[in-house]
Amino acid sequence: MSAEEPTVHAAVSNGIPAPEIPLPFPDRPEIITSNLLALTDLAPDPRTRLIFRNLITKMHEFITETSITTEEWMSAIQFLTRTGQTCTPLRQEVILLSDVLGVSALVDALNNPAVGSATESSVLGPFYTEDALDVEQGESIASEGKGEYMFVEGRVLATDGTPISNAAIETWETDANGYYDTQYSDRAAPDCRGRVHSDADGRFAYRAVVPVAYPIPGDGPVGDLLLLLRRHNIRPNHLHLMIDAPGYRKLTTAVYPEGDPYLSSDVVFGVKKSLVVKLTDVNDEAEARKRGFAKGSTFKLLNFDIVLVTEEEAEAAAKQRAQEAAHIAGARL
Known about the structure:
Blueprint: H1 29-40, H2 46-66, H3 70-86, H4 93-100, H5 103-111, E1 149-158, E2 168-172, E3 193-197, E4 203-209, E5 214-215, H6 221-228, E6 234-235, E7 239-244, E8 251-257, E9 276-277, E10 280-283, H7 285-290, E11 298-303, E12 306-308, H8 311-332
Parallel strand pairs: 1-11, 1-12, 8-9
Antiparallel strand pairs: 1-4, 2-3, 2-7, 5-6, 7-8, 10-11
Helix pairs in contact: 1-2
Protein name: Aromatic compound dioxygenase
Organism: Auriscalpium vulgare
Keywords: Dioxygenase, Oxidoreductase
């Protein structure tokens, strides 16, 4: 072989042999589905078999019942391809697609059933990052000039009212322009996001800005989908929170100031009634300075408590929800 000739390697199998079960040739549409389900039943893990059997059954039923054309299916493939290609380290278009189709909210609701007085969860959203900086009690997560002043305070508590100390409270929000810091091309450091820790009494406090309602990115395939469905792309104003404390179920949630016209039609279905909060107007220059605001006399005050559930409480609630779901499913048969 000359030096110019490339080395050719034979194609390599994944090592799994042909199945020993008899399979008819897929000469009719329904045989394609039955053959695939038979092959899926060979998966060794029971949970994997359950998930993919249900997925295949419902997906094939959808394709059959709607008589999807070749052109429509190719359009769907191209849409999903563009969705993946739009993703960057700071932009998650796939999560955005999950959000607008209600899948993120549904998965969240099923996995985090309400427990008594505990704070309810909400969707993570596509703008969370892992580079938030630690902020001392009372300090600011937002640089000066990012919006109208807001002071956030409250306590982290267990369901029995016991204060939870040293809980990590990660928080992020938009600025007054309706943008997260990751949406600026010149982003040099995290802004309008930070991490505070509750004190010995479970108290937390930090300065922020009043978030505003904003459109989710409309310049990608998810934006095109919303236009096709004649749906708006607005999220009501909100403050994201992620709370982590040893022995308690990690909580991802958000609070939504009352009065926003998009509360009930949030494009990602993240608003729950218990998460709608009241902002209090404060007009007192001395109080503004005491809270650490640099100028002016007015700010908004947001006071609310975060109630966490233990792992045991969360597991008990999930078990009860599963039993109720099984009962409802059985009643339908």
